[in-house]
Amino acid sequence: MKKHLSILGATGSIGTQTIDILSSIDAEVVALTTNRNIKLLEQQARALHPKLCVAFDEAAAKELKTALADTDITVLAGMDGLVAAATHPDCDTVVTAVVGMVGLLPTLAAIDAGKDIALANKETLVCAGQLVMDAARRKGVHILPVDSEHSAIFQCIQACQGNALDKIILTASGGPFFGKTAEQLKMVTREQALQHPNWSMGAKITTDSATMMNKGLELLEAMWLYDLPESQIEIVVHRESIVHSLIEFADGAVLAQLGVPDMRLPIQYALTYPERLPCKVPRLSLAEVGRMTFYAPDNQAFPAMNLARHAARRKGNVGAVLNGANEAAVGRFLSGNLPFWKIPQLVEKAMEQVPYQAQPTLDDILASDRAARQAVASLAAAQ
Known about the structure:
By secondary structure, the chain is of the alpha/beta class. It has 16 helices and 11 strands. The longest helix has 21 residues, at 362-382.
């Protein structure tokens, strides 16, 4: 069946790779969005002829409107524009490839409008997993994972045949600082943090991989997607990024999904499920890989995973606080205003400061996010 897509975050890593696989599937693009990469979005718009283009940044939207003035493409701005793209009447599937908390409101709006979600914005479930999954069940929409790890779990689950999972095993590359001690991490630079060994991603996600917070966020995402407590989700460092994740059954049998480290396969599967089509991704050769290694994560050097487990156990608004504080701290690190090793430290202190709410509403989630960011700003200013 032909898909009609809105791609939120079309100019980012996931967005551009989504566009790259369009020639392999039967799909039409209805809407495209960016933050402020107007040059690339204009190129995409002229190639794909969507009905709507959105720049989240207001000044960039004015520039985009001028750039596309000779077309019949509607141009909108800000959060209202993202929501309009996510709920466009001609769209049936929304690829949520924006980074950060900004993805929450458009995703909820898309679900409310009955759109299926190809989910690459993990913060949506980290911050408001209960609200999002309840809404999806109520509306009968599918949430199909795009992250390589959660796609791997989803693919393995196809073999369950009604049997319950006993455990999820998330694999982590270990990032650029695998093997370093907590003391050594005090000396690392921004440039080093952005040198991921296996994946090409944006600066924020790459930094999260370096702190291992990315894997903590994925643990929270897996908890909501697959309805398992954090105690049944294990994290293992797998440097080669060939085994994308695994599931374990009650009898001890373990299933894994393997493939080269290329996001186009999980993106395509989310858009063609349950059908599998030829994909542009290179085929895996185990003989060329030669060997694969696995290690327990170092929670002392990389405490972010423990913070995420704490958030997973408490639920409520704690995921929103964790994510908001992390986004704020990573932003300061990337702008040169915070040492790398202080990122999890500020996140932990913010989590201690923002009051706990067991059953948060959407407004409570948004307020918790703001409070966490403010706490990080105050803590950083006091240092």
